[in-house]
Amino acid sequence: MELRTACSPRDERNYDTSRLREEFLIDDLFKPDEIKLVYSQIDRIITGSAVPVEKELHLTAGDELRAEYFLQRREMGVINIGGDGVIVIDGKKYDVGFKQGMYIGMGARDISFASKEASKPAKFYINSAPAHKTYPTVLIKREGTPSDDVVIIKDENKKELGSLEQSNHRVINKYILPGQVESCQLEMGMTELKPGSVWNTMPCHTHDRRMEVYLYFEVPEDALVMHFMGEPTETRHIIMRNEQAVISPSWSIHSGCGTQSYTFIWGMVGENQDFDDMDDCDMSELR
Questions:
Q1: Which of 12, 101, 169, 194 could form a disulfide with 79 if both were Cys (CB 3.0 to 4.6 A apart)?
Q2: 207 annotated to bind ligand
Q3: Which residues bind Zn(2+) (predicted)?
């Protein structure tokens, strides 16, 4: 597990391109038959991936967590951005398809990932946060029939925003949040930009009570996303390619503009789960 330390905004102002990428960019995700995990001391979020191809992958705590098993004191969200996959949790099997997700509650001991077809492997994207209570483990689908362990994203949590004229026509799909899938602090969702739209989270904002990680995907090979970060009056940028993630501290804006439309997964952890608890940044104040 790779460790990333926290960063002061006063230090970040002096970073060059390579240092910005070293601190905040998470690259080389989704390696075949590997689990990759990055532990950030910013709210102690773990961001990672599991890509089972020829074998089943088992999630272990490793020495870094000083725990008997990975979710001994943690909760976890997973969204599959690849082929059909299977997650087995303490012997119970869940079929997880493309853009379906899971919330896995604290206390789950044995977690493994597999793909249904090696030629079309699943790509499980992972966010994990410290937890103090066990909430139910559930499979999260965008449509279908709910059951005891299957949650369907509510219509009010599929929010269409923006316009083509503003280059930000998009749909926000909220997967894990209070009132739909309960958690201790983790929230996750997916934002899909419509064709012709390229801006996300603009006008931008910060939120002092939680941090965020973005995973950009469905970015064409010849395209890129300019991810903007930093204090509103001291902005910086990181060039993002397909299936790369970026860490955003609570003091930083988090906004992007692509050369083509794209999709991204957002994950937030912190002390406040109020989705609308944001400090909006006036466009005239950005520097």
A1: 101
A2: yes
A3: 205, 207, 212, 254
